[in-house]
Amino acid sequence: MSVILPLLVPLTTAILCLVVPYRTAQRYLSLAGALALLAAGLYLLTQLEDGIQVMQMGNWPAPFGITFVADHLSALLVLVTGVVAVAVTLYALEENDAPRERQGYHALVHFLLVGVNGAFLTGDIFNLYVWFEVLLISSFVLMVLGAERAQLSGGVKYFAVSLLSSILFLSAVGLLYGATGALNLADLATRVEALAPGLRSALAMLFLVAFGLKAAVFPFFFWLPASYPAPPVTISALFAGLLTKVGVYALIRVFTLLFTYETAFTHQVILWVAGLTLLVGALLALAQGELRRILSFQLVSHIGYMLMGLGLLSPLALTGSVFYALNHMLVISALFLVAGLIQRLGGSGVLVRLGGLYRQQPWLAVWFLLPAFSLAGLPPFSGFWAKFTLAAAGLEAGQYGIVAVALLVGLLTLLSMGIVFAEAFWKEPPKASANLEARGWAAQALPIALLALLALGLGLWAEPLLRLSQKAALELLEPSGYIQAVLGVSR
Amino acid sequence: MEVLLSFLVGGLFAVGVYLMLRPHLIQFLIGFLVVGNAANLLIFTAGRLGSQFPPLVPPGGELLEPIANPLPQALILTAIVIGFGLAAFGIVLFFRAQQELGTLNGEAMPEQFETAPLPSLVDEPQTPQERVPA
User: In b/e form, how buried is each residue of A142-167, taking b as 16+ CB within 10 angstroms?
Assistant: First the structure.
């Protein structure tokens, strides 16, 4: 039961949001649902003390029925999804966006959360495809809700690329099924060993492209900066925190459970993809003049760090990857929400039209700087430990090239955040700037402050989360525990 | 039979991908429908074909061998439903995009509606006097 609670909670909330006709009631219902999801995530994590949690739907035994599995990786991601959901719904409490709320904004957010958590928890590869579609359809509607011109233009691109990646994923699942006769992930893990190496590598590359499109890695990232800055900031922040991480999760799952045989080829490709994603994303971020586009490219760039750990495939490296993913979910959501506040208080998201915010709103500067430093990986923030772990793992494996790129991108990120700070906060405000509304933003700063202080707290006291990430990494590298938990037989 | 269908799937993929690469959104949508059917046929073929009996036990009777594989059919049914929903959403999305943006050419849809020039990283002198060295 604890395994599917993170699915049932948002599903119930979404249905209630559809039924309840009052906007204010929907908002508080949405917040209550997000808090309950957070509680469900915590409960699931405590249950993992007794080992990997498995649930067979309808009591059909493992390879035949639909399986839900929660190991440390899934449970941690579900927990942080809950945190991001709480922050975003808190921020949305004060957003007076009546048209979108009337069109079902709150229900869609929770349907999206159902899809995200379903993808994290399922133990069946076809079921993973179905959860991907659940979250994609919700995200399509959220992306174009309100039908502004920029939203439609970005939405068309996002829709098109997502369709392509879904079809590739479906074809890859079909071919994998044809080759092995299995769909359950644990069952597949025992059968892929018998495949011909060439076939296995070809399948691995199909999955890499399909999930890479979702995770927005080089060279498949172009759709993300074209679409994420378009919708309202709560939706951007939710997408930035959660959606690409589902792609990263799927990559980590598939490339630690199934395709671990030709690592000299597959994981080397992943390392190259990681390095190029890091470098290209960071450089393109420096070439943008609009706040949310800068953050979108930073989002793309930092996906590279998570893939870097996967490519190195050592306990330390995967620990770094998992820790980085969790940290990044918090930090990038916080930054997108801050971008929304800057846009509201400064009247624009374009850097040359901003200025002087530090003098007017010194606290806003604090809430921007905390997650920005964490993103850049400065000590003592959580991003520092994540990067430190990854760099140490890279040096341990003798992969000096990727470590150099990772550290350089840390510097480039700091430069990019520094430019934003100098332009939006320090520079003299341009003459034509209108200070729209300077009051009443404290309630919206609260969720940002929560995320930012969490990032700081996780940096000062990184031990518990690092240990949990390490457990997740060890489970990933020793899949026999996962297989045994699902199939109930030891191999 | 599998070989024949494999060629059909390959051909459909080629046609569909070509259409999906076209800038016109309606061509893209038709391409998606073709590729979607290709993927469904691929799963069908992957489940092995042949002259088989339906996987049903008649009341009081016995299961007739060889049995057809029911799993690919369940998978395809799910995929068809999802593909149908996506195509329906796509038609409405493209219609709205055409109304608002006045074009169905995906490449003609701008990425940014607001010009965002890059900030200059060097402080420019405010007045000509400042440029004169003291």
Answer: bbbbbebebbbbbbbbbbbbbbbbbb
Give the side-chain half-sphere CA count within 13 A for A23. Answer: 13
The predicted model gives A81-86 an average pLDDT of 96
A234: which 2 tokens? 């709560």
- How does residue B132 score in pLDDT terms, banded at 50, 70 and 90? very low
Tokens, residue B102:
């006045």
Average pLDDT, chain A: 91
Predicted local distance difference test score (pLDDT) of residue A431: 67
Q: Which amino acid is at A102?
A: R
A283 touches B: beta carbon within 8 Å = no
Distance CA A138, CA A116 (A): 10
Residues of B with CB under 8 A from a CB of A: 20, 25, 28, 32, 35-36, 38-39, 42-43, 45-47, 71-72, 75, 78-79, 82, 85-86, 89-90, 93-94, 96-97, 100-101, 106, 109-119, 121
B76 lies in some domain? yes
CATH code for the domain in which residue B101 is found: 1.10.287.3510
Residues 6+ apart with CB under 8 A from A9: A33, A36, A37, A40
Task: Flag whether B122 is in a domain.
Answer: no
Q: Which domain holds residue B14?
A: 1-52+67-106
- Between the CA of residue A286 and those of A279, A349, A415, A416, A451, what are the distances in Å? 11, 15, 8, 6, 25
Cα three-residue angle A308-A313-A317, rounded to 5 degrees: 60
What local confidence, expressed as pLDDT, does residue A344 receive?
Answer: 85
- Residues linked to residue A350 through DSSP beta bridges, in sequence order: A290
Question: Residue B105 has what DSSP assignment?
Answer: B
Q: What are the phi and psi torsion angles at A5 (to 5°)?
A: -60, -40
Residue A411 CB partners (closer than 8 Å, separation 6+): none
Beta strands in A33-74 (DSSP E): 53-56, 67-70
Q: Which of these, A74, A190, A119, lies nearest to A472 by C-alpha position?
A: A74
Give residue for tokens 């597959």.
A266
**Per-residue pLDDT reduced to its tens digit, A382-415:** 999 999 999 999 999 999 999 999 999 999 999 9
Q: B125 in a domain, yes or no?
A: no
Closest to A480 (Cα-Cα) out of A257, A262, A304, A283: A257
Determine, for residues B82 and A153 on separate chains, whether the beta-carbon distance falls below 8 Å: no
Count of other CB atoms within 10 angstroms of residue A393:
25
Q: Is residue B60 part of a domain?
A: no
Question: Which DSSP string do the residues of B10-35 spell out, in sequence order?
Answer: HHHHHHHHHHHHSSBHHHHHHHHHHH
Check: CB of residue A251 under 8 Å from CB of residue A310.
yes
Alpha helices in A349-479 (DSSP H): 357-360, 362-376, 382-396, 400-421, 442-460, 463-477
Look at residues A252, A272, A249 and name the one whose alpha carbon lies nearest to residue A260.
A252
Chain B's closest residue to A131, CA to CA, is B82
CA–CA gap between residue A246 and residue B111 (Å, rounded): 25
CB contact under 8 A, B42 and A174: yes
* Total of domains in chain B: 1
- Residue environment code for A367-385, b if the CB has 16+ CB neighbours within 10 A, otherwise e: bbbbbbbbbbbbeebbbbb
B88 exposed, middle or buried (CB, 10 Å; 0-12, 13-18, 19+)?
exposed
